[in-house]
């Protein structure tokens, strides 16, 4: 299944989010995944804990954050959640990001190889990033992806 299919299946696309607390953004990104049975609450709590312990190593210069934790922290099924923030925010002491993609993978190797690679390939396009940032509805995001 593609990122797009997983996002739609989980109902995990949120657009125009106004939030300045990075912890709240991670919890918000996780909410549909918890509700749909893709992850346990312990998963996003591990993401927050990892960020506090190791920094926001998942924030990239392009304003994209890809928060994640190890599969054993509570992943039930492979999943993605997308949050588009109205204003970029810093995660801990990181650069600011306004595109947040929380993901979970059931297998440690797929966690890095498939998850992050798929996201990077999807977002390695400046025009697509600009269109995502301009989206005002989740259906627009689906069309862009």
From TrEMBL:
Annotated signal sequence is none
Annotated GO MF terms: kinase activity
Name assigned to this protein: Ascorbate-specific PTS system EIIA component
Subcellular locations according to the entry: Cytoplasm
- Presence of keyword Kinase: yes
| Chain segments annotated as coiled-coil in the UniProt record | none
Record-linked PANTHER family = ASCORBATE-SPECIFIC PTS SYSTEM EIIA COMPONENT
Q: Which UniProt key words apply to this protein?
A: Cytoplasm, Kinase, Phosphoprotein, Phosphotransferase system, Transferase, Transport
Presence of keyword Transferase: yes
Q: Domain named PTS EIIA type-2: which ranges?
A: 6-145
Gene behind the chain: ulaC_1
Q: Which GO terms describe its cellular component?
A: cytoplasm
State the protein's purpose.
Answer: The phosphoenolpyruvate-dependent sugar phosphotransferase system (sugar PTS), a major carbohydrate active transport system, catalyzes the phosphorylation of incoming sugar substrates concomitantly with their translocation across the cell membrane. The enzyme II UlaABC PTS system is involved in ascorbate transport.
Q: Tell me the Gene Ontology biological-process terms attached to this UniProt entry.
A: phosphoenolpyruvate-dependent sugar phosphotransferase system
Do you know which PROSITE patterns this protein is assigned to? PTS_EIIA_TYPE_2
Please, which domain of life does this record's source organism belong to? Bacteria
């Amino acid at each position: 299944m593609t990122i797009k299919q997983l996002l739609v299946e989980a109902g995990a696309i949120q657009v125009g989010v106004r939030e300045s607390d990075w912890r709240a953004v991670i919890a918000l990104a996780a909410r549909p995944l918890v509700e749909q049975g893709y992850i346990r609450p312990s998963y996003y709590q591990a993401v927050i804990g990892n960020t506090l312990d190791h920094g926001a190593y998942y924030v990239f210069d392009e304003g994209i954050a890809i928060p994640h934790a190890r599969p054993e922290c509570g992943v039930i099924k492979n999943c993605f959640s997308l949050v588009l923030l109205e204003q970029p925010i810093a995660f801990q002491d990181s650069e600011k990001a306004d595109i947040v993609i929380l993901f979970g993978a059931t297998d440690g190797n797929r966690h890095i190889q498939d998850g992050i690679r798929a996201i990077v390939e999807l977002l390695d396009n400046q025009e697509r990033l600009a269109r995502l940032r301009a989206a005002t509805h989740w259906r627009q995001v689906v069309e862009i992806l």
